[in-house]
Design a protein that fits this description.
The complex is a heterodimer.
Chain A lengths: L1 H16 L27 H12 L19
Chain B lengths: L1 H9 L15 E11 L2 E14 L3 E14 L2 H6 L3 E16 L2 E12 L2 E14 L4 E16 L2 E22 L2 E14 L7 E5 L7 E5 L5 E15 L3 E12 L4 E13 L3 E12 L27 E14 L9 E19 L13 E16 L1
Antiparallel strand pairs in B: 1-2, 1-18, 2-3, 3-4, 4-5, 5-6, 6-7, 7-8, 8-9, 9-12, 10-11, 12-13, 13-14, 14-15, 15-16, 16-17, 17-18
The chains are: A mainly alpha, B mainly beta.
């Protein structure tokens, strides 16, 4: 039950924050660095989705990336 | 993975923009090449996205794997083969205020496997646009057949539930946390792969029988990531993923990546990835006898193993004079070297030794991606 209780507390806190407007601690004019293209999580989706497929076909872990669950030439 | 892309592109917004902007119009044409463990796979890939009225976006993708396989499994229990896999995809996104709704569909087809996948996601920016929360659901339907056996046909039903949170922590640091639950039900083993068992009457000391997997598998993946902007305009990223499933397979994956731009034209990437996993509970390299237990696997993907990847990338960005409709373009080359080391999967190309004492298998793979990107 402990995780459930923790989740409940987290939800209550989240609900409480909804009553007062949160001030963003990183102002819009301070976001120059994180808006730089080199800060993108995934700059080249065509390449990164291919690499996920390479790993999923050869390792046991699954990431759930689209239709790559199909055949893979991995036999 | 449109979800991740959308989260990523959130950070590319112009400073004056409010949250909730669709990704840029972009086309990528790629040639990919994989060579490792006796398997060569190459082919083209195309991804195009276009938005309309800043509220709608459509995407289309095309991908081909041309496979030539003489892997260790194939040469020890079957014959080398060639085959082709083709995948088509289409997606649609709708932006309303700070909420993005997305739907996508893809089809993957080869001569003995057909996979349809549909995904829905909803993503919302909140808390002054410092936080992006996304929920997604994917459903997959696979049809499995076996070459040379018209009587065999089976299915897989796949569902993926996921949540992802991306958080701007400081003006130089972004954090990400995601959780996925994946359930699969149906024919989950490979219809060609076999396991081996001790057989004193066989010349090699062992014989083969077909592998048998449970018909259900549920996995959970929890991942965390952080990306820092360094003081001299470069970025470093750390990723970690923990995976566990009902087959008792657990894995830890860690990655560190560094991005270094040079002038406005060049971008260099280097990364290292490490993965380790234990074996599935019904995996064995050599079973003591035939039909030793209900479920039998000798798929090296389910063995205890480690992989190490060292990768490099270089991108050159330019404004093409021969294509006015392109705002900018880039040529990219990425190369990864992957080493796979197995702890309990043995190299059966070695004979003349007692079964179970063959050397452990390992191999290296070279993976290339060469692609052209155009923004229009």
């Amino acid at each position: 039950m402990k995780p459930v209780r923790l989740l409940g507390v987290a939800l209550l806190l989240l609900a409480a924050t909804g009553c007062s407007r949160l001030e963003p601690w990183v102002k819009p004019y301070e976001r120059e660095n994180i808006a730089d293209p080199i800060m993108a999580w995934d700059r080249d989706p065509v390449s990164s989705s291919y690499m996920r497929h390479v790993y999923e076909a050869r390792e046991g872990a699954r990431g759930g990336a689209g239709a790559s669950g199909g055949g893979c030439g991995c036999n | 993975m449109q979800l991740i892309r959308r989260i990523a592109l959130f950070f590319l917004l112009p400073l004056t923009a409010v949250a909730g902007v669709l990704p840029e119009d972009r086309a990528d044409l790629m040639y990919h090449y994989y060579d490792g463990g006796g398997v060569t796979i190459d082919g083209p890939s195309l991804l195009v996205r276009k938005k309309f009225a800043e509220k709608y976006a459509v995407s289309a993708s095309y991908y081909v794997d041309m496979i030539s396989s003489a892997s260790i499994d194939v040469i020890t229990t079957a014959s080398p083969y060639d085959e082709e896999r083709t995948q088509y995809g289409a997606g649609f996104e709708y932006l309303r205020g700070k909420v993005t709704y997305a739907a996508s569909f893809s089809n993957s087809s080869e001569n003995d496997y057909e996979a349809d996948t549909a995904s829905l996601s909803i993503s919302q920016d909140m808390f002054g646009d410092l936080t992006t929360v996304s929920l997604f659901f994917t459903r997959g339907w696979d049809d499995v057949t076996r070459r040379g056996d018209a009587t065999f046909a089976d299915e897989i039903d796949r569902r993926i539930y996921g949540v992802d949170v991306s958080q701007v922590a400081t003006k130089n640091l972004v954090l990400g946390l995601s959780f996925e639950a994946i359930t699969e039900e149906g024919f989950l083993n490979n219809p060609y792969r076999q396991v081996r068992y001790v057989d004193p009457d066989a010349a090699l000391g062992y014989s083969y029988e077909a592998e048998r997997y449970p018909r259900t598998r549920t996995g959970n993946a929890l991942s965390a990531r952080a990306r820092w902007y360094l003081p001299y305009r470069a970025a470093i990223q750390a990723d970690y993923r923990f995976y566990t499933d009902t087959w008792d397979l657990r894995s830890h994956t860690a990655e560190i990546a560094y991005t270094h731009p040079l002038d406005d034209e060049w971008t260099f990437d280097v990364h290292y990835r490490f993965n380790t996993q234990n074996e599935a509970e019904f995996y064995s390299d050599l079973f003591p006898r035939q039909d030793f237990q209900n479920f039998l696997a000798r798929d090296k993907e389910l063995a205890a193993m480690q992989s190490h990847t060292l990768g490099f990338g270089v991108a050159y960005e330019f404004k093409p004079s021969w294509a006015d409709f392109l705002g900018k373009a880039a040529i990219n080359l990425k190369y990864d070297r992957i080493r796979f080391d197995y702890d309990n999967f043995r190299d059966l190309r070695v004979t003349g030794v007692a079964p179970g004492t063959e050397p452990l298998y390992q191999f290296d793979a070279d993976v290339f991606r060469l692609f052209f990107s155009g923004w229009f």
